[in-house]
Amino acid sequence: MPSTTFWRDKKVFVTGHTGFKGSWLTLWLASMGAKVKGYALEAPTEPSLFQVADIAGMCKSHQIGDIRDVSALYQSIKAYQPDIVIHMAAQPLVRYSYDHPIETYETNVMGTVHLLDAVRRLDSVRAVVCVTSDKCYDNREWVWGYRETEPMGGYDPYSNSKGCSELVVSAYRNSFFNADDYSQHGVAVASVRAGNVIGGGDWALDRLIPDILKAFEQQQTANIRHPYAIRPWQHVLEPLSGYLVLAEALYTQGPTFNGGWNFGPHSSDAKPVQYIVEKLAKLWGNNASWCIEEGQHPHEAHYLKLDCSKAAQLLNWHPRWNLNRTLEMIVNWHQSWLSNTDMQCYSLNEVAVYTMAMDDE
């Protein structure tokens, strides 16, 4: 599990800290005493986890900026002189990428170039974790999980941009942060790929669980596009725990932990969309209902799983919460927010409960 002793007083530069995953990561880092500087666009939704849990108040420094602005990004990271960089800023939506492909590639590909090029011009950074997606793989819709050595690909602009981002990370690692020259540059670089990350505080557009909960909240029928599509569902804290453990290993042990890493759920938690909406409706209560949305929809992969044997063997990382527990946590989080609960305290407690589950293993 992430070590509070290690993270205390570490200077961490997080891009994308206003997003769903970035907000949870920042909250967790701050709870361990890390000094976080966030760099991101304004929170992408209203409401947002960033807003309702006052994530800005947990940052040592908080800057609104665009990852596509190479000069502003460099000046921001240079001014902070971080020990560790976690790059999460992205255009994260498949359907949006069909309407905005140029923005998607500029953000996800060139944003990664800008970040890594800034790091190579600094002396303070010792570890970099670049977050991509399980959709970076050339998806053949196999029944077995994809390993880190599988080819990059991507059918749609979003997925392909994540594959391209992985290639950028590999090229920069080989060219500027080569393991053979570690004694000279002192930087270890890894990329991480997670499955469909879900959790409380996600209000993103065109995302399954936020759309379902919004419908239930408004006592409307939830419309489902692809009920038989299978995804590797996992609570947001699962991959984040992997990112943190990996970042610590990169910092303390160097390029031994370079490369790509998968952080996905147990195979038994790769379930079809219909399973998710039925479970959520039951947990929500109040006669919540759903139906299949008719019409044509942009292509989305129907089957994708990750093989996480590498993380299990080398980092001793394993998923802690199964899918049913995860869905229960999501509904409890959302209904607590509707009840005007202090969501920073509630979310910090959720992190504490998760870390206790890690301690128990």
Features of the shown structure:
361 residues, 14 helices, single chain, three-stranded mixed sheet, alpha/beta
Question: Your description of this structure?
Answer:
The structure is a single chain. By secondary structure, the protein is an alpha/beta fold. Helices cover 44% and strands 15% of the residues. The protein is built from 14 helices and twelve strands. It has helices at 4-7, 20-31, 49-52, 70-80, 94-99, 101-120, 157-176, 182-185, 208-217, 237-253, 273-284, 309-315, 323-338, 343-359; strands at 11-15, 35-40, 61-64, 84-87, 127-131, 188-194, 196-198, 222-224, 230-235, 259-263, 270-272, 290-292. Strands 3-2-1-4-5-6-10 form a seven-stranded parallel β-sheet, with helices on both faces. A three-stranded mixed β-sheet has the order 7-9-11. The protein has a two-stranded parallel sheet with strand order 8-12. Helix 11 crosses helix 13. The longest helix has 20 residues, at 101-120. It is globular, with a radius of gyration of 19 Å. The relative contact order is 0.14. The mean pLDDT is 94.
Mean pLDDT: 94
Rg, please? 19 Å
Structural class: alpha/beta
Q: Which percent range fits the helix content?
A: 40-55%
Q: Which term fits the overall shape?
A: globular
Elements, N to C (H/E): HEHEHEHEHHEHHEEHEEHEEHEHHH
Helix tally equals: 14
Low-pLDDT residue spans: none
**Main sheet makeup:** 7 strands, parallel
Strand order of the largest sheet: 3-2-1-4-5-6-10
What portion of residues belong to β-strands? 5-15%
Distance between the termini: 10 Å
Total number of beta strands: 12
